[in-house]
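2024-03-11 09:14:02 INFO receiving multi-entity request
2024-03-11 09:14:02 INFO entity count = three
2024-03-11 09:14:03 INFO echoing inputs for audit
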Amino acid sequence: MQITGTFLDEISHDIPHQNWGEKEWDLDFQHMKRMGIDTVILIRSGYRQWLAYPSAYLMKTEGAYKPPVDLVRLFLELSERHGMQFYFGLYDSGKYWWDQGDYAREVELNLHVIDEVWAAYGDAPAFGGWYLSQEVSRKTGGITGLYRKLGIHCKAVSGGLPTLISPYIDGKKAILAKDPSLSREDAVSLEDHQREWREIFAGIQGAVDIVAFQDGHVDYHELADYFAINKALADEFGMQCWTNAESFDRDMPIKFLPIKWEKLRLKLEAARAAGLDKAITFEFSHFMSPQSAYPQAGHLYNRYQEYRKMLA
Amino acid sequence: MQITGTFLDEISHDIPHQNWGEKEWDLDFQHMKRMGIDTVILIRSGYRQWLAYPSAYLMKTEGAYKPPVDLVRLFLELSERHGMQFYFGLYDSGKYWWDQGDYAREVELNLHVIDEVWAAYGDAPAFGGWYLSQEVSRKTGGITGLYRKLGIHCKAVSGGLPTLISPYIDGKKAILAKDPSLSREDAVSLEDHQREWREIFAGIQGAVDIVAFQDGHVDYHELADYFAINKALADEFGMQCWTNAESFDRDMPIKFLPIKWEKLRLKLEAARAAGLDKAITFEFSHFMSPQSAYPQAGHLYNRYQEYRKMLA
Amino acid sequence: MQITGTFLDEISHDIPHQNWGEKEWDLDFQHMKRMGIDTVILIRSGYRQWLAYPSAYLMKTEGAYKPPVDLVRLFLELSERHGMQFYFGLYDSGKYWWDQGDYAREVELNLHVIDEVWAAYGDAPAFGGWYLSQEVSRKTGGITGLYRKLGIHCKAVSGGLPTLISPYIDGKKAILAKDPSLSREDAVSLEDHQREWREIFAGIQGAVDIVAFQDGHVDYHELADYFAINKALADEFGMQCWTNAESFDRDMPIKFLPIKWEKLRLKLEAARAAGLDKAITFEFSHFMSPQSAYPQAGHLYNRYQEYRKMLA
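2024-03-11 09:21:47 INFO inference complete, emitting structure
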């Protein structure tokens, strides 16, 4: 099970920024390429007031700040140059669907964003799909309708480009980054996970093409069961089932540094055993890149490359 | 709005130490110089038992430890060599004015420190001012009297060298570093901030020459209002109004790593718009230096230098 | 007081992994050698499901994961190559003696581990001792019996190789890494520390040869008293008294980065003053190595080497 995709963590939610310019991003795409990555996914195009592209719409309606550089343009160009598919991550208000439970407002904003983005970047050869960036673990509020409406609109404007979601499992490690705890007693059961996600999948069939559950919120020995359920559900509703192999370590008090290679390998092998369709990671540039500010990432890259060679 | 000053975070309160020797410090002053820095400010000369210079007085009265190197001497020499002004930061007991509310004791200690320091280092050509290191956000306890007495004594012994304070705003991000939270509900109002600081400024007029509010405790869109109030208050009482542009990121769970360049730029532009007199940063060596242990800092340096070139 | 030993933090409990391969480990042993290190101590051979060697026994009984590399073999070879003594750290279940208070089960597992390990690696020339990896600060549960039974068995199978424990002091900084606090009100008294450890030492005499208390859980000015008690107790029961000089900083909100050199020096000088027999550190590879992911560690190495030169 090789990692062939990565998120691009711009705009970052809880991972400190590396302050890279165009030169560093270009080099990073080269490193990705050498590791076999063919897909990059912008985690979100905006979060609260921060934007990855100069959205006239969000600057006006949400008071968002004009970004110093158009990262969407840069990433599309780099994707084209290095032969990758780029997925565009939608805007996450960080409030309407969150504190306020106003999913309709979150949908409305993003319908505009989709139109704006497709008009601006839709002709870029590397524009390969959409990422619905609102991440949940349960059938929370209006999430099913949000995914359905946004997925349908993404596909409608773009001639059917694929849509991706990346939920997490409400497991014992489902803890906010700013919470110092590492685990909790209260976790979802396999049965509840299966039941709720079947309901969600039923509601988003046709609107969402790919589901890539995050693999870091349950214990390692629990992965096989969850992967099996997720794969079966995806099959049942005609979706692709990828794994989002987290390359940072959720078991350590510093939130977050690169994961121990052994853990990542274990998760990839569990995904392979479950027959998942593709592995992507969150994310290469901080946690696996040879030029990451965390040197552990470069060593992880080397260990992973040795593993690929061994598999070949 | 260019950054022309930086704190030197020795003795550090909550930022892990880089363990630099004289060679690294010399190189760092060269990096600072290339960024346009002309002023360095020792954040404090001692904190609890830790000292930046071998204070016979504090070793005797407070049981402080003899430091392995005289950093005040080193910084004065480096400041002279690289053409910078050095501000000496007073001693912070971390207890008398804090837990115990005994501002008189804090003042008494520092009156001795001022005499001791001026006798030892007063003839150094780079000795350019004083930093009153007790940082507050509100009219807390005896802070007005402390600033007044210490400021007057600093100026009296040194022939009127300028005195600086760097308060913070009691905003939604006013959280202790060891507290895992990133924001809080309870924050000062603009009106209370203005009223309390007018009272403080009235009490310290003539004793404190410069006020450099820290810019990291309020949200980015709130800065314009606070900067305007601070500038107007400083004008009213004949003080200079600098901005202390924090170069670390308060929005991330790791406390603290270098700030995202976009955020620093936004803060500097708000300071320029408000007509502030000078920008300093907390602080260069961890968060903006090309040789920082945090490689994100070197990238921030590069982004900032590109911005300077663009402005020129 | 020079540092002549270090722990090897595999399997790590709360320090993020560096993802080194054989090449990096070899280089690290060279760095250690240049610093005068003659003793390396594996902190534990397993923790919960994670293993440092492919223990057939623990994979079967505890469902432990097969590790990607046999670190015990690697460390024994590197120790031999670089002329060091290797201490093998026992398995820490992280549960039986911890949550469940089932010390008998922890002992039973480790009696098997000792046999398995001695059969597999006992003929390695560098195998020089045993580390009983269950770390306590008080006379907790069945800890005395655990140390006695495991120590006796280690010595019995190995022809009397020395056994080491490294307790901590239940001081004001005895805080779990995942707890954001830096200190607490409740701390052991000198008298209680002395009384409880005399009882423990009386119970483990003959089974444990060396005690190396961790030096990071009390304030710096408290070290002299604790060192004196520990040394006197060790003398009373015929044990060697080492110090485990922690090279990470417990006073900072990031848990953990390398310690400030001044603090480490202060602790080493207190250990020398107390006449302790040897200094080891937790641990070289993250916190003192020139190739550590934390560049502060390389600077700490340089400061320490200057200090060694000064002492010579």
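2024-03-11 09:21:48 INFO post-check: The domain at 3-311 of chain C is CATH 3.20.20.80 (TIM Barrel).
2024-03-11 09:21:48 INFO post-check: Chain C touches chain B at residues 180-182, 220-221, 249, 252-254, 257-262, 265-266, 294-296, 299-300, 302-303, 306 (CB under 8 Å).
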